[in-house]
Specification:
single chain; 245 residues; alpha/beta; Rossmann fold; 44% helix; 16% strand; globular; binds nicotinamide-adenine-dinucleotide
Length: 245
C-alpha cells in the first residue's frame, strides 16, 4: 500500500517543474491528484498522461490570485473526489530585476502570486480540512525565504512571508489536526530558471549542481505524509548546501 493511499491531493503549479514531479510521486504512492495551474495546455496534457498510467488525476485551470477561482477549485475537487487531504501550495513566479528599477506593478504582481496566492489557497484548504477533521499543507517557499540575494527583492520578501505564514497557520490550527510546513528549495532545474543562468547557479551551490524536481518531490512527500506526523510549522531547506555557507 502506498504512503498516500486514497488520499486526495491538490497540487498548485502542478503542470510543471516541482509540482509535476510531486504529482508523479504522489500518484505512485496511491494518491488521487488535482493539478491546478494557469497553463491549461500543459496541465491537461499532464493529467491525461497520469490517467494513462491508471492514476486518478484531473486538471483544473485556476489563477491562485483569484479568490473565486480558488474556491471553485476546492468545490470541484470535493465534488469529484469527496474530500481534500493534502494541499501542495506550490505555484509561483520569479524574475530578477534591480530594485531601483523595479516598477511597483511588478512588485505587486510578484507578491500577489507568491504570497497572496499562497494565502488564498491555504485559507481554502483550512476551510475544507476543518470540515473533515484535518489534513496537511505544504507551502513552497524558497531558500530565499531565509537569505537575501541581489535583484530579487519582491520574490525574496514574498518567500520570507511564506515561511512565517507557515509558522503562523501551523500554530493556529495545530489542535485541529492540520499540519502546515514549507519546502525551501535551492536552485532546481525547472523552467523557472533561465537556461543561461544554470551554469553560474550550479557553481554557486556547494554540491556544484542544480537540484532535480524529483529531489524536491521526496521532501514534499515526507511533509505531506504521516512520515512527518509530529512536524508542523517547519521549513525544510533542500538546497545542495547553499544556505550552510
Ligand atoms: N526552481 C527553483 O530553483 C526554485 C527555487 C526555490 C523555490 N522555487 C519555487 O518552487 C515553486 C515551483 O516552481 P518551479 O521551479 O516548479 O517552476 P515552474 O515554472 O516549472 O512551475 C511553476 C508553475 O506555477 C504556475 N503558476 C504561476 N503563476 C500561477 C498562478 N497565478 N496561478 C496558478 N498557477 C500559476 C506556472 O504556470 C507553472 O506551471 C515556485 O513557488 C517557485 O518559486 C523554485
Amino acid at each position: 500500500m502506498g504512503k498516500l493511499q486514497d488520499n486526495v491531493a491538490i497540487i498548485t503549479g502542478g503542470a510543471s517543474g516541482i509540482g509535476a514531479a510531486t504529482a508523479r510521486l504522489f500518484v505512485s504512492e496511491g494518491a488521487k491528484v488535482v493539478l491546478v495551474d494557469l497553463n491549461e495546455e500543459k496541465g491537461k496534457a499532464f493529467a491525461s498522461e497520469l490517467r494513462a498510467l491508471n492514476a486518478d488525476a484531473i486538471f483544473i485551470k485556476t489563477n491562485i490570485t483569484n479568490e473565486e477561482e480558488v474556491a471553485n477549485t476546492f468545490k470541484q475537487t470535493v465534488e469529484t473526489f469527496g474530500k481534500v487531504d493534502i494541499v501542495f501550495n506550490n505555484a509561483g513566479i520569479g524574475r530578477v530585476h534591480p530594485s531601483h528599477e523595479l516598477e511597483y506593478s511588478e512588485w505587486r504582481n510578484t507578491v500577489n502570486v507568491d504570497l497572496d496566492g499562497v494565502f488564498l489557497v491555504a485559507r481554502e484548504s483550512i476551510r475544507e480540512m476543518l470540515k473533515t477533521g484535518g489534513g496537511t499543507i505544504v507551502n513552497t517557499a524558497s531558500m530565499y525565504g531565509w537569505v537575501g540575494s541581489p535583484g530579487s527583492a519582491a520574490y525574496n520578501a514574498a518567500k520570507g512571508g511564506v515561511v512565517n505564514l507557515t509558522r503562523s497557520l501551523a500554530l493556529e490550527y495545530a489542535e485541529q489536526n492540520i499540519r502546515v510546513n514549507a519546502l525551501c528549495p535551492g536552485f532546481i532545474d525547472t523552467p523557472i530558471i533561465p537556461e543561461e543562468s544554470k551554469q553560474a547557479l550550479s557553481q554557486a551551490t556547494p554540491m556544484k549542481r542544480l537540484g532535480q524536481a524529483e529531489e524536491m518531490a521526496k521532501a514534499v512527500l515526507f511533509m505531506a505524509s504521516d512520515d512527518s506526523s509530529y512536524m508542523t510549522g517547519n521549513s525544510l531547506i533542500v538546497d545542495g548546501g547553499y544556505t550552510a555557507q
